[in-house]
Each structure stands twice: as C-alpha cells, then as structure tokens.
Amino acid sequence: MTLATDRPDRPDRPDHPEGLVCGIDVGSTNVKVTLVDKDATTVWTKALAVPRVIDEGRPATDALALVSTLEAMIIEGWSATGAVSPLLAIAVTGVGEDGVPVASDLRPLDLAIPWFDRRAEREALQLRAQVGECVRAGVAIDFSRTAAKWKWLRQHRPEVARKAHLWLALTDFPAAWWSQTPFMTETLAARTACYDVFDRKWIASLLDASGALPLPRVVAAGTAVGTVATGSLLAHGAADGNTLLVAGGHDHPVAASAVRRLRSHVLVDSLGTANLMYDEVAALAPRADPYVAFSVPALGQSGVACLGVFEFAASLERFRASGLSAFLSGEVAPGEPAPMTDVLAAIDHALRPGPSTAPDRLRASVDAATFYARCMRDSIRAAGAPANPIYSIGGWARSDALLRLRASVFGEPVAAVEEDELTALGVALIAQDALGADRAPLKRNVRFIQPYPEWQDLYERNFIRFRAFVEELRHQRAA
C-alpha cells in the first residue's frame, strides 16, 4: 500500500480530507483503488492481485468476489485517510472484453473468462468464416473478443446462456451492482467486435452470429448511472445514498484522457502488460488497418479513437530472469542496436502462432517491439491524427533506457508522465467531473527523453526492412 501521507485511522482529526472521489482500475493482473481529493491530488492508493478462481484449469473471475475485494479496499482507504464524509462519487475502468451473464437481480450466473483465455479460438474462426471481416466494428474477431466468448458460451454452457437475463461487462459490473442499474459503457461495447464504432450502434448481424446475450443500455464514459444502493460501503459509511456511480469504460482510453488533462493533444504510448498507442481523429471512413483498431473516443466525444496494441510484456517475459531489469533500469549499457537478423527473428516469434525460433538477445526483442510500435504510430498518423507529441505512461515508462531507445526508433523525443496509477487517477477525475464541479487542473511531473543521434540513421534504415518483413509475414498468415 502507498499512502500519500502517513495518517493513522482517526476520523476525528481536524485535517481529514473531504470531497473525496474514488477511481477503480480492474486490470488483467491487478485491481487498483485510488482516492482523490477536490484538488486532483491522490491521497491514498492500493493495488492487489485480481481475485481469481480456476475454471477448467484456467484462471477466471467471480464478479461478486471482485466486488467484495473492491469494497474492502475502498473501506480501508477511506478509513486510512481519516475522512468523515462519504465518498462523493465512484467510477470504474478496466479490461475491455471480459463479462458475465447475470440473472434479473444482476447476480452472476457464471464466471468471467479473461480476455487472454484462448478457449474461444475455434469459435472465433467460425465467426470469421461466417461473417468475414466487418470494418465497421473497428476490431477484428479473435479469441479475445466478447463475440467469440458469447459463441463459446452458447456452445459449451447452453443452460447458462438460456437463463441469462443480461450480459454485463466485468468492468461495469461493480457500479451496476452497487447501483442495481445495468448498463454498458460505450468503450467496452466497442471491444465486443459487434459494435459499429463509426455510427455508434450495435451491428445486428454480428450479434446474431455470435449468439450475443441480451444487452443493457449503452452509455458514454462519464455518465452518472445511479447512486450506491447496496453493499458494505453503506454499512461502513464510506458511501451513502448520494454517492454517485459513474461509467468509466475501457482502461486505455481512460488513461489517455488523464494524460490529455496535462496536454490536450498528445499520442499516448501506454507501456504496461500490453503496449497500446492511443490518439483520436475528428473523422474517419470505415477501414481496416493491420496495426490499429478503431473505437469511440474516451469520453464519448465525436470522432474516432485509434488504438494500436502489441503484447509487449509477453514478448520480453523469457528475459525476466536474465537481464531484463538491469537493461530497463539502465544499470547495464544497452550497446549498439541489435543485428536485423535477430530483430526479424524476434518479431517472427512474437507474431507467428505456434513454435518459431526466438533469439536469445534481449536487445533484439526490445528493438523488434519498438519497431512494431513505430508501425502503430505511423498507422495512427496515416488515419488522420496530427503529429502530436508522444507521451509514455505505465510501469515500463519508468525506464529512461527503454524510452531513449524508443525515441531513437521513433525519431522524436518521448515524454514520460510520472504517475504510478494514471488509469485509476484518470477514472477518479471522470467521477469528479460528473459531480458538475469546476475541474481542478491536473499537475504531474513530465520528463522528456531525447533520441540517441548516433542510432537514428541506422534505425531509420532498419525500419524499412522491418516493416517489409512484417508485411510479408502478415501476407503469409492470411494466405
């Protein structure tokens, strides 16, 4: 646990904070709770592992157990700050595709299967064969999408599907449960692969093909969906019947919205479990792009959001015990850029399903991941986003060594936002906005990392070869 100040649990303290709001980030690995005051200052934050159970030998999530975990964290934080008044508002952001079938009383009928669970691969293939690619959905159908999980549920657990009153996104579930009001945040609807992100409506043919369960109303992030009506938050005084519950939605757009409070027009380079690049364009005709998915903007504004995703952490996982930390911390000199033969082998290993030859060189894998990030950046700009400055966030953005390498590949400086829990902070500020109060300016330190001039020419030449290789690899996979 990290406390902004070391306060004992004493509600009678004269310096207790008031006007607190709560932001919750339900991630793939951890859940985080952040309490923020009226000045946009974080006063308490904590992270715990996502509560998991085992389902058919694989991790899954009990949605009510998640709610209990979050309630305990919120109560702990609210008590630790010495607050007297209940929280003013709560908003939840998190993973995009996970969800649960629920009964009419909103009780889950099954576990939430994580987006990274591959059990729906066959169903994804069936869907693609049946409906082809629908560019209006903004994302391709694969095993991670809710559409594939719906089809899997219909085929493997038909009794659960028949009993379901509604489907709720896991990220929305806590707020829906506390308010006893079902809803789906629009940025989460966009992750199902059945939502038209250009016309902002469900695609009936894709819902039918995937066997989608009945769905609640869709709302923009930032919409007040109700107030706290049930749960232990009421009993402990951390919330009352006036505590507002606010739709938060998909985590990456929420983090980007927080960065854009620091500087309004930036390309956000999120370096966590996945590397996700995010920007928005004013208008875009429906199109497919091999490097970028399309969605609705973070807070439901007009235009189209562009999201490029690469499984960054997974591509480096095998080096965790052999030098990764030392490399990223700058404790060891990075040396010269890796030979292109190793870089191409590394991206082949990351993108090609099944066994392939992976290089033993850490630098080659980092170079390959960063070249791919440049492909994402270039596609976002080709979609109409201006050449906005790049702001990096997330745990890996603490590494100046990594950011200097990325700046050298990108050919431009990279800024790093110094905030450990930017996603939870971002959704807390969305909750604060829903109260209608004047927005407090967000202030965080930002450091700027410059490229290595001696690497730039080599990286520029190598990038041309890299992109050609990736295009050929994609062509082979499509054949």
TrEMBL record:
Family matches, as InterPro entries: ATPase_NBD, Carb_kinase_FGGY, Carb_kinase_FGGY_CS, FGGY_C, FGGY_Carb_Kinase, FGGY_N
GO terms under biological process: carbohydrate metabolic process
CDD domains: ASKHA_NBD_FGGY_FK
UniProt keyword terms in alphabetical order: Kinase, Transferase
Residue ranges constituting the Carbohydrate kinase FGGY C-terminal domain according to the UniProt record: 327-431
Domain Carbohydrate kinase FGGY N-terminal: 21-256
Pfam entry (one): FGGY_C
PROSITE patterns hit by this protein: FGGY_KINASES_1
Entry keyword RNA-binding: no
Gene Ontology molecular-function annotations: kinase activity; phosphotransferase activity, alcohol group as acceptor
Keyword Transferase annotated: yes
Superkingdom classification of source: Bacteria
Family, per entry: Belongs to the FGGY kinase family.
Name of the featured protein: Xylulokinase
